[in-house]
Write a structure and sequence with these properties.
Elements (H helix, E strand, L loop, with lengths): L6 H24 L13 H4 L5 E5 L4 E6 L5 E4 L8 E5 L2 E5 L7 E8 L2 E6 L2 E7 L1
Antiparallel strand pairs: 1-2, 1-8, 2-3, 4-5, 5-6, 6-7, 7-8
């Protein structure tokens, strides 16, 4: 009687390995490794909703600030209408009011009716609706 190589054992072993690898690949593509939670969203994105904020500076000046999701915005109510650019930071945002003005970064702290912009423990402005 002629003996044939025992190939079915190898193929069963390979199939047993393929199934877990395939299952892992399917589930890893379908589900994020770490789900995004609300606290992981930078606070600046709650401010940049395209709606106007009443912005009161520490010296009492009142302007209107509108920030858009695309990193641009509008500032009116001052002597000059500005088109600021902004970017989120982990605890607030950085705002560059105009071409010749420098970027300023602040921490945003939630208040009763909006947010307070802080730098080095000092309040710089309030955003209210």
């Amino acid at each position: 009687m002629k003996s044939f190589p025992n190939n079915h054992r190898k193929s069963n072993h390979i199939r047993r390995l393929e199934l877990p690898v395939l299952a892992f690949a399917i589930f890893s593509v379908g589900y994020p490794v770490s789900p995004v939670r609300a606290e992981q969203v930078p606070i600046a994105h709650y401010v940049a909703d395209g709606r106007p904020w009443k912005m009161t500076t520490e010296d009492g000046r009142v302007t209107t600030l509108v920030l858009f999701e695309n990193g641009k915005g509008k500032m009116t109510g001052g002597p000059v209408k500005l088109s600021p650019k902004w970017r989120p930071t982990p605890d607030g945002l950085c705002l560059k009011p105009g071409l010749l003005l420098s970027e300023r970064c602040v921490q945003l702290v939630r208040s009763n009716n909006g947010y307070v912009g802080m730098r080095a423990g000092e309040q710089l402005f309030k955003l209210e609706r």
